[in-house]
């Protein structure tokens, strides 16, 4: 079904913070916002416990925030982008307040600022303690519903982008009434991350990188895919996705201990507040060696834990743990992707008419390792620049959309064991090569596993090519930081060429480049 009354409008794919903010910034221009779930449900944004990093304290500045961001990025940040985001962050917080977000304040009416790993100052703004993402989505969803120019399509999943001659001309989606085709020359991807490719993740299991697959099959370049951040402290239990135990708990003074009570990070510079890649690898190695790991907040918070972190306390109690009196069992889990669709400073991809915003985009802010709480900040600041670019772009629309087979609903279950084994906290050539050989034929197919397999394949190829350890990418066979490429860009074609050279494999038929 071709929806003609909406044709020509910009289409924003994703109902999280990046998509909501982009839609609001585009008002009063009529836009279509497509959400895979009901608005406000089942997105990584809702699960975000951390806050937004912004230099709001009297002892802080955008220059200090920039310095911390560049240090965390391990030499691969785009300095101009990082400066732009850190300078815009305080104004973005003010704008969110105007949209109805209720932040946490101290008794003097000032922002209650928290400290997280690798920050030199307290600069993390929270809402409802440890439920910042949920509060942002609540307020922004309400604002979107009150904006007449925004048409929201809920419970609708985008399966392909129509692209021809390097230009977007439509969207193919599926809803309860069947297939939907929208003619448009302006599409914004705001689809979140890739944690759903892994057995252990803090992301919704449906977030496997669908936006990356959409972009790749439309011909776009993707960049820095090898850089995936594992959060060191997910609550170790059977629940999936894994509940997050926010880094802010360590910012309050909680320590990591093993099952012998040993504080194994005591001699590490920064201790529990070292960069996330350092802490995640330390925790992972304890687990690998047969120990359990716990986050102990009894001394620093004790009975105040539930007041300071109500959502985490509730999750812990569901698992039979009272953080006031017991340490919390934790382990690393796939959490945030620094790589994504390669975009310029306005969010434009290499395909005309295709933008990306939020975690699905690689802006250059994060480099090899994201500074804690810079992700929500990036989403709310970048949305304004993306929206301005979309609003100023050509509006010529090709209305003739080619009939196409609707791809099946993606399912990452077949891919998770492969990605979890090869693309985890420590990687090496042999397992990466095995993953490429296994994933390539699946990605070249046309079944439910093909899109998840394509995303995992592109990550495996990028991880194999970066023969060094830097930031969140650690190669056991290349443990030292080396002279790897500043930015490694892949397309669909380059990925399969690399797979062929690694695995002596070629697809039996032409690669799927269909819309």
TrEMBL record:
Enzyme class: oxidoreductase
Cellular compartments annotated: Cytoplasm
E.C. number(s) listed in UniProt: 1.4.3.16
UniProt keyword S-adenosyl-L-methionine, yes or no: no
Record-linked Pfam families: FAD_binding_2, Succ_DH_flav_C
Cofactor: FAD
Record key words, sorted: FAD, Flavoprotein, Oxidoreductase, Pyridine nucleotide biosynthesis
GO MF annotation, one: L-aspartate oxidase activity
Domain Fumarate reductase/succinate dehydrogenase flavoprotein-like C-terminal: 455-481
Predominant localisation class: cytoplasm
Catalytic activity: L-aspartate + O2 = iminosuccinate + H2O2
Gene3D superfamilies: FAD/NAD(P)-binding domain (3.50.50.60), Fumarate reductase/succinate dehydrogenase flavoprotein-like, C-terminal domain (1.20.58.100), Succinate dehydrogenase/fumarate reductase flavoprotein, catalytic domain (3.90.700.10)
The protein's annotated pathway: Cofactor biosynthesis; NAD(+) biosynthesis; iminoaspartate from L-aspartate (oxidase route): step 1/1
Occurrences of domain FAD-dependent oxidoreductase 2 FAD-binding (ranges): 11-376
Domain of life: Bacteria
PANTHER family tied to this protein: L-ASPARTATE OXIDASE (PTHR42716), L-ASPARTATE OXIDASE, CHLOROPLASTIC (PTHR42716:SF2)
Role: Catalyzes the oxidation of L-aspartate to iminoaspartate.
Protein name: L-aspartate oxidase
Organism per entry: Mesorhizobium retamae
Taxon lineage: Bacteria, Pseudomonadati, Pseudomonadota, Alphaproteobacteria, Hyphomicrobiales
């Amino acid at each position: 079904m071709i929806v003609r009354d909406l044709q020509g409008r910009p289409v924003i794919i994703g109902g999280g913070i990046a998509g909501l903010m982009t839609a609001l910034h585009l008002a009063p221009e009529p836009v279509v916002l497509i959400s895979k779930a009901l608005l406000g449900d089942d997105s990584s944004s809702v699960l975000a416990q951390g806050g937004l990093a912004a230099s709001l304290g009297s002892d802080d500045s955008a220059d200090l925030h920039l310095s911390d961001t560049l240090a965390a990025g391990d030499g691969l940040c785009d300095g101009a982008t990082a400066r732009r985001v850190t300078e815009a962050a305080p104004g973005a917080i003010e704008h969110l307040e105007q949209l109805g977000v209720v932040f946490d304040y101290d008794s003097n009416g000032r922002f209650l600022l928290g400290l997280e790993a690798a920050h030199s100052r307290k600069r993390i703004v929270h809402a409802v303690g440890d439920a910042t993402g949920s509060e942002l989505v609540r307020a922004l969803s309400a604002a979107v519903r009150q904006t007449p120019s925004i048409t929201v399509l809920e419970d609708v999943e985008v399966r392909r982008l129509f692209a021809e001659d390097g230009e977007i001309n439509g969207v193919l989606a599926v809803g309860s009434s069947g297939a939907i085709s929208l003619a448009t020359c302006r599409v914004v991807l705001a689809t979140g991350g890739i944690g759903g490719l892994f057995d252990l993740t803090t992301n919704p299991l449906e977030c496997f990188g669908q936006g990356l697959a959409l972009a790749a099959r439309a011909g776009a370049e993707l960049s820095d895919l090898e850089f995936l951040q594992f959060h060191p402290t997910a609550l170790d239990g059977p629940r999936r996705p894994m509940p997050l135990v926010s880094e802010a708990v360590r910012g309050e003074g909680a320590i990591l201990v093993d099952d012998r009570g040993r504080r194994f990070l005591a001699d590490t510079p920064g201790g529990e507040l070292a960069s996330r890649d350092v802490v995640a690898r330390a925790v992972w190695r304890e687990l690998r060696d047969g120990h359990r790991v716990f986050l102990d907040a009894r001394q620093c918070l004790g009975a105040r834990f539930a007041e300071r972190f109500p959502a985490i306390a509730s999750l812990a109690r569901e698992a039979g743990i009272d953080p006031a009196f017991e340490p919390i069992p934790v382990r690393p889990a796939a959490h945030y992707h620094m790589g994504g669709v390669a975009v310029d400073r306005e969010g434009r991809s290499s395909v005309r008419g295709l933008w990306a915003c939020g975690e699905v985009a690689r802006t250059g802010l994060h480099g090899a390792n994201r500074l804690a709480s810079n992700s929500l900040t990036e989403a709310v600041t970048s949305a304004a620049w993306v929206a301005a670019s979309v609003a100023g772009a050509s509006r010529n629309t090709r209305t003739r959309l080619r009939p196409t087979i609707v791809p099946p609903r993606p399912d990452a279950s077949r891919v998770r064991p492969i990605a979890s084994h090869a693309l985890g906290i420590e990687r090496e050539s042999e397992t990466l090569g095995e993953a490429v050989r296994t994933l390539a034929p699946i990605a070249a197919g046309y079944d439910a596993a093909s899109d998840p397999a394509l995303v995992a394949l592109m990550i495996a190829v990028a991880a194999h090519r970066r023969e060094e350890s830097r930031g969140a990418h650690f190669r056991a066979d290349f443990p030292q930081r080396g002279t790897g490429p500043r930015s490694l860009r892949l397309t669909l074609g380059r990925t399969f060429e690399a797979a062929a050279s690694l695995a002596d494999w070629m697809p039996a038929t032409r690669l799927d480049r269909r819309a």
